[in-house]
Write a structure and sequence with these properties.
alpha+beta, Sulfite Reductase Hemoprotein, domain 1, Sulfite Reductase Hemoprotein, domain 2, 5-stranded antiparallel β-sheet, 22 strands, 31% helix, 18% strand, binds siroheme, binds iron/sulfur cluster
């Protein structure tokens, strides 16, 4: 449907016309990829290519110099490879590693939604690169665009006995909600558009797909690593406490809806929102419920304004009661009452974890998910050597790190040796602050970045680490995140400490989210120059070390100590004077 039942007086956003006329996402992509004159594609093709997991970008580090020289921008592309539940094989890792060298900028980026990104792909290598990705049984389709994105799931196979069943559920959901258009195959794999043949049908999406991106996760308590409250739709695995031998361990899922984190500075009608718990369902109802929720949003999401087109706004505007009624009328049954659940943290557990059945898993801290070799730390080489011998699998975590999973007792000494030889084992010795850090990509590739993020947060943490060590907080987990703009990619509003780029070298500072991801933070100080960030935070960390109650988390302390008030409303994110809190 391309109507907007919410407000039929406003014209549809131009993107709707583009999607409708694109012949199921073909548009002019094929012809523009063949054109060798331009290093990029038109704006329309750029928008459609996102559905294929590909983003036109330019190297922003080179912009000024090239402008001075009268040259066009240094055009490049980013390809996002979605990996449902984050599980890939060593062979796939090796192939991506090689592809990052032959077709991209030599790095692999592990995203915080369990996907890979290749950056710096030039147009001439793009089609061959995507074809190669598909050859290794991975895909970029629906990694971006107005569709259901990569479905996340906790990566630890032994997080609980429920894990295998939840991972299977996440993968099944991903398959069920993948777009059916044949355009992807034609453009990237066959290399030409098929004439005639069966017409495309998109039974779930229709020809204009969704009003906006849509994100689904499956959480396995007590870990909330998937940050379920920041996602459009979430499922929380609930165990069957009375399961007998051989019976399924999974009773079903609590359902969360309407989370989302993007906003624009000082546009109060945009805001991050924590998801609501909607109800409970049995495992066999999962796909039906997910599909119908997606369809409600397809039909009622705001197609007139892309800044107001996420499910969180549909629910905020119409109310949860309306949403439940609309959903249940499509399902033909009522949702059950939510069951009890408890999350204790959002971070990853590093190092070796012994699993069921003798296998063990090693989670490696990869700062901001960037896999590369640097002088003195050949991380990418080390992981390649491990991939050559590893018999289990690799699992991307929702915090941008990597789990080497399913290591048998016989294999473990070899993996341990490779970790040691390549100094990978040292990465996990960082402070709790660094281990709890996450930054979005931002400069130089992200076209929306207002400030640095991935390239700056590590240095800022180094500045704070001295205080952390001196105050005796070395091993305390504190969730600290940075983004280069307010779109929220690094999930900053769910961090105990967050920096959100406002302008080059300036950040809004947010404090006070819950350690388990259930409460957002609030704006503490707007537009702080980077040189003043560490001095601003050091005294707060010092006080926390001395004055905290037993077991009190940093995010709770800053509220109790009066630095910020607990959040609730959008205003907390936009009007500094009213919400900055009292500094003591
Ligand atoms: Fe994001 C746009 C990177 C997770 C909210 N995001 C972008 C783009 C594609 C910029 C663009 O549109 O031109 C960034 C590409 C930068 C680059 O050069 O690689 C980008 N987002 C990322 C990643 C790679 C950050 C990371 O370092 O891990 C994450 C990729 C996830 C994935 O594998 O799919 C990423 N983005 C998120 C998240 C977190 C999450 O989903 O858990 C959010 C907040 C949650 C949400 O969606 O509400 C997020 N990204 C956005 C938004 C704001 C959406 C909104 O509703 O306002 C944009 C901008 C947009 O869509 O217009 C955006
Ligand atoms: Fe780019 Fe902003 Fe997302 Fe960071 S938060 S990757 S700067 S869009």
């Amino acid at each position: 449907m391309s109507t907007n039942p919410g407000d039929t007086t406003k014209p549809l956003d131009k993107a709707e016309e583009l999607k409708a006329g694109s012949n199921f996402l073909r548009g002019n992509i094929d012809a523009e990829l063949r054109d060798t004159v331009s290093g990029t594609v038109t704006e329309d093709s750029a928008k459609l290519m996102k559905f294929h997991g590909v983003y036109p970008q330019d190297d922003r580090d080179l912009r000024a110099q090239r402008r001075k020289e009268g040259k066009e921008k240094a055009f490049i592309f980013m390809a996002r490879i979605r990996v449902p539940g984050g599980v890939c094989t060593p062979a796939q890792w090796l192939a991506l590693d090689a592809l990052s060298d032959s077709h991209a900028n030599g790095t692999l980026k592990l995203t915080n939604r369990q996907a890979f990104q290749l950056h710096g792909v030039i147009k001439g290598k793009l089609r061959a690169g995507v074809k190669e990705i598909n050859r290794m049984l991975l895909t970029t389709i629906a990694a971006c665009g107005d569709v259901v994105r990569n479905v996340m799931c906790n990566p630890n196979p032994d997080q609980s006995e429920l894990h295998a069943e939840t991972l299977a559920a996440a993968r099944a959901l991903s398959d069920h909600l993948t777009p059916r258009t044949k355009a992807y195959h034609e453009i990237w794999i066959d290399g030409e558009l098929a004439a005639g043949g069966e017409p495309d049908v998109e039974p779930i999406y229709g020809k204009t797909y969704l009003p906006r991106k849509f994100k689904i996760v499956v959480a396995v308590p007590p870990s909330n690593d998937v940050d379920i409250f920041g996602q459009d739709l979430g499922f929380i695995a609930v165990p069957n406490e009375n399961a007998g031998p051989g019976e399924p361990r999974l009773a079903g899922f609590n359902i969360t809806v309407g989370g989302g984190l993007g906003m624009s500075h000082n546009q109060v009608e945009t805001f991050p929102r924590v998801a609501d718990v909607l109800g409970f369902c049995r495992p066999d109802q999962l796909a039906d419920i997910a599909e119908k929720i997606v369809m409600v949003q397809r039909d009622y999401g705001d197609r007139t304004d892309r800044k107001h087109a996420r499910l969180k706004y549909t629910i905020a505007d119409r109310g949860l009661a309306w949403f439940r009624t609309e959903l249940q009328s499509r399902l033909g049954y009522e949702l059950a009452t939510p069951r009890r659940f408890e999350f204790t943290h959002t971070g990853d557990r590093y190092g070796w974890v012994d699993g069921i059945g003798g296998a063990s898993h090693y989670t490696l801290f990869i700062e901001n998910g960037r896999v590369k070799d640097t002088p003195g730390y050949a991380m990418k080489t080390g992981l390649r050597e491990i991939a050559k011998v590893h018999r289990g699998d690799f699992r991307l975590t929702p915090n941008q790190h990597l789990m080497i999973a399913g290591v048998t007792p016989a294999e473990r000494p070899r993996i341990e040796e490779l970790l040691r030889v390549h100094k990978l084992d040292r990465a996990n010795n960082a402070t709790g602050l660094r281990l709890g850090s996450m930054a979005c990509v931002a400069l130089p590739t992200c076209g929306l970045a207002l400030a640095e993020s991935e390239r700056y947060l590590p240095d800022l943490i180094t500045e704070l680490d001295t205080e952390v060590e001196a105050a005796g907080l070395r091993d305390d987990g504190i969730i600290i995140r940075m983004t280069g703009c307010p779109n929220g990619c690094g999930r900053p509003y769910l961090a105990e400490i967050a920096f959100v780029g406002r302008a080059p070298g300036k950040y809004n500072v947010y404090l006070g989210a819950a350690f388990n991801g259930s409460r957002m933070n609030a704006l503490y100080r707007p537009s702080v120059p980077s040189a003043e960030l560490a001095p601003l935070l050091r005294p707060i960390l010092r006080r926390y070390a001395v004055e905290r109650n037993a077991g009190e988390r940093f995010g709770d302390f800053v509220i109790r100590a009066g630095y910020v008030k607990p959040t609730g409303t959008p205003i907390d994110f936009h009007e500094p004077d009213k919400v900055a809190g009292t500094q003591i």
